[in-house]
Amino acid sequence: MGSAPPVFIGAEEVEKHLHRASLLLPALEAALGNFSSGAAGGVAQPVRTVVPVHRHGGFLGVMPAYSAADDALTTKLVTFYEHKKDSSVPSHQATVLLFDPRNGSLKAVLDGSVITAKRTAAVSAIATKLLMPPFAEVLCILGAGVQAYSHYDIFTELFTFKEVRIWNRTKEKAVKFANSVNGPVQVCSSAQEAVTGADVVVTVTMATTPILFGDWIKPGAHINAVGASRPDWRELDDELMKNSVLFVDSRDAALTESGDVILSGAEIFAELGEVVKGTKPALPEKTTVFKSLGMAVEDTVAAKFVYDSWSAGN
């Protein structure tokens, strides 16, 4: 008897099983802690391999991981294209392959774009829970793409903000965002206007040069820097990077992939997993930056969650 053919779990089905990104929080917190525990944590995950598609200005990333705690084995294939003229195609597209770790057979092919959006926002929410100032009232989102929606959803579910602001280079997209989410959102005409006085800032842009500057930032604010996933791309300027306490998901990845970290020369204080484990302090009284590049093990636990939920229903 051969093994069963792999199942395909498409975007709508993934969305159904992962309707709230907060469902992933316990598994992701555990995975972050395990990753930062080194060999003892049982996470095997190299820094992603990125293949440039020179002719078309894009990249293909390959992100494999195994988590012993979850007994889950996956690889994600993700393409990201800068400044696509055809806006009907998302800048990032992804597929996750889930394998049976006992024998290596392919169990499932999952739409990875929903998984990426949800797990990224959930990890930003974990960072924000730990690092934001105690009486945070104003949330600011820079960018109005897929990640803006997923971050808005989980942040407004988990935290109570009196005001939410958005800025996007194309104002129409910011207006569309404000009109399509559940709560009131103020559309700002400049990034500076959006950020001034904000307690929590989320940058989810395709910027390649800084759009957020240190002298705009309220002292003690927390910034989740999610865009700029290439060594020569930036979202944050040197002043902000050097005058805040810097947290990352993976030291190795940040020093290889993050232009914000590499080009500013900013010193990494801790991995988020070290804060989750309690081996490094959170320092919410300081101005903090969480530089999120996204890790393969996050895709692994999210894909396993979706597959287990799908299996239970079938």
UniProtKB/TrEMBL annotation:
<keyword id="KW-0520">NAD</keyword>
<dbReference type="GO" id="GO:0003714">
    <property type="term" value="F:transcription corepressor activity"/>
</dbReference>
<dbReference type="GO" id="GO:0047127">
    <property type="term" value="F:thiomorpholine-carboxylate dehydrogenase activity"/>
</dbReference>
<protein>
    <recommendedName>
        <fullName>Ketimine reductase mu-crystallin</fullName>
        <ecNumber>1.5.1.1</ecNumber>
        <ecNumber>1.5.1.25</ecNumber>
    </recommendedName>
</protein>
<comment type="subunit">
    <text>Homodimer. Binds the thyroid hormone triiodothyronine (T3); T3 binding inhibits enzymatic activity.</text>
</comment>
<comment type="similarity">
    <text>Belongs to the ornithine cyclodeaminase/mu-crystallin family.</text>
</comment>
<dbReference type="GO" id="GO:0005829">
    <property type="term" value="C:cytosol"/>
</dbReference>
<dbReference type="GO" id="GO:0050241">
    <property type="term" value="F:pyrroline-2-carboxylate reductase activity"/>
</dbReference>
<keyword id="KW-0521">NADP</keyword>
<dbReference type="GO" id="GO:0000122">
    <property type="term" value="P:negative regulation of transcription by RNA polymerase II"/>
</dbReference>
<dbReference type="GO" id="GO:0070327">
    <property type="term" value="P:thyroid hormone transport"/>
</dbReference>
<dbReference type="GO" id="GO:0047125">
    <property type="term" value="F:delta1-piperideine-2-carboxylate reductase activity"/>
</dbReference>
<dbReference type="GO" id="GO:0005739">
    <property type="term" value="C:mitochondrion"/>
</dbReference>
<keyword id="KW-0963">Cytoplasm</keyword>
<dbReference type="GO" id="GO:0050661">
    <property type="term" value="F:NADP binding"/>
</dbReference>
<dbReference type="GO" id="GO:0005634">
    <property type="term" value="C:nucleus"/>
</dbReference>
<dbReference type="GO" id="GO:0007605">
    <property type="term" value="P:sensory perception of sound"/>
</dbReference>
<dbReference type="InterPro" id="IPR036291">
    <property type="entry name" value="NAD(P)-bd_dom_sf"/>
</dbReference>
<dbReference type="InterPro" id="IPR003462">
    <property type="entry name" value="ODC_Mu_crystall"/>
</dbReference>
<dbReference type="Pfam" id="PF02423">
    <property type="entry name" value="OCD_Mu_crystall"/>
</dbReference>
<dbReference type="GO" id="GO:0042403">
    <property type="term" value="P:thyroid hormone metabolic process"/>
</dbReference>
<dbReference type="InterPro" id="IPR023401">
    <property type="entry name" value="ODC_N"/>
</dbReference>
<dbReference type="GO" id="GO:0070324">
    <property type="term" value="F:thyroid hormone binding"/>
</dbReference>
<keyword id="KW-0560">Oxidoreductase</keyword>
<dbReference type="GO" id="GO:0042803">
    <property type="term" value="F:protein homodimerization activity"/>
</dbReference>
